[in-house]
Amino acid sequence: MITRKSKREIEQMQAAGDILVQCHKEIAKMIKPGITTMEIEAFVESFLAKHGATAEQKGYNGYKYATCASINDEICHGFPRNEKLEDGDIVTIDMVVNLNGGLADSAWSYAVGNVDEKGKRLLEVTKTALYKGIEQAQAGKRIGDIGHAIQTYAEGEGFSVVRDFTGHGIGPTIHESPYIPHFGVPNKGLRLKEGMVITIEPMINEGEWRSKMDANNWTARTVDKGRSAQYEHTIAITKDGPLIITDQDK
């Protein structure tokens, strides 16, 4: 069922989003060769506890961690681990914050040390694709408009769009209807309405878009070992346009 949020509910989600943004900004300072994603995981647990929030994905369908930490050819749902990040890696940290029942979800890709030019372009194109999708998140538009904007831009830049994982509605649980593909046909799909809260989270690959699943049944990675990047925001559809609940640039 698709739920449309009240002003009060969106304000609750915004409060969770503010904590999530602060957390990502601290993570950005930590990213360097030699750090482990398990250290980032421990920091996130501590940071959320200090701010009276919890990690909503911990325990979700048996998932054990507060964060997903996906490195290089891992598309999403990578487990935090004790291996050190290396110079040139790309790592995506994804988390869902719960503050008094309000949820916010945001993934961010980080360059570790000196990333090569193609890696930098992958990050730049993926982030730009996210914002091109957000531009279409208007009351009266359709879900296909979001996916089409992302797909045409990313493919036009020589990258591919993952199709096996999508954005989604959020609140009161992590994954709600509707699903938000990052590919599509304009003016097709469900019409967006004021009060809907969704995530837009394109996963963009260097090589082909297809994925394969690791033996842990969580981590998806590219089939050709090409690198993948992801940026994600939680968005409220308002009469004044998209409200980015997890905006880092306020």
Automatic annotation (TrEMBL):
Top EC class of this enzyme: hydrolase
**What does the entry list as the binding residues for substrate?**
77, 175
Report the domain of life of the source organism. Bacteria
Q: Which reaction does it catalyse?
A: Release of N-terminal amino acids, preferentially methionine, from peptides and arylamides
Which EC number(s) are documented for this chain? 3.4.11.18
Q: Where does a divalent metal cation 2 bind?
A: 105, 168, 201, 232
Domain (Peptidase M24) spans: 11-239
The record's section on Gene3D superfamilies has: Creatinase/methionine aminopeptidase superfamily
Cofactor binding notes: Binds 2 divalent metal cations per subunit. Has a high-affinity and a low affinity metal-binding site. The true nature of the physiological cofactor is under debate. The enzyme is active with cobalt, zinc, manganese or divalent iron ions. Most likely, methionine aminopeptidases function as mononuclear Fe(2+)-metalloproteases under physiological conditions, and the catalytically relevant metal-binding site has been assigned to the histidine-containing high-affinity site.
Instruction: Read off the Pfam families from this record.
Output: Peptidase_M24 (PF00557)
Q: Which UniProt keywords apply?
A: Aminopeptidase, Hydrolase, Metal-binding, Protease
Task: Cite the binding residues for a divalent metal cation 1.
Answer: 94, 105, 232
Kindly give the SUPFAM superfamilies that the UniProt entry links to this protein.
Creatinase/aminopeptidase
Q: Which GO terms describe its molecular function?
A: initiator methionyl aminopeptidase activity
Q: Which cofactor does it need?
A: Co(2+); Zn(2+); Mn(2+); Fe(2+)
Q: Subunit composition?
A: Monomer.
| UniProt record similarity statement | Belongs to the peptidase M24A family. Methionine aminopeptidase type 1 subfamily.
Its biological purpose is as follows: Removes the N-terminal methionine from nascent proteins. The N-terminal methionine is often cleaved when the second residue in the primary sequence is small and uncharged (Met-Ala-, Cys, Gly, Pro, Ser, Thr, or Val). Requires deformylation of the N(alpha)-formylated initiator methionine before it can be hydrolyzed.
The name this protein carries in UniProt is Methionine aminopeptidase
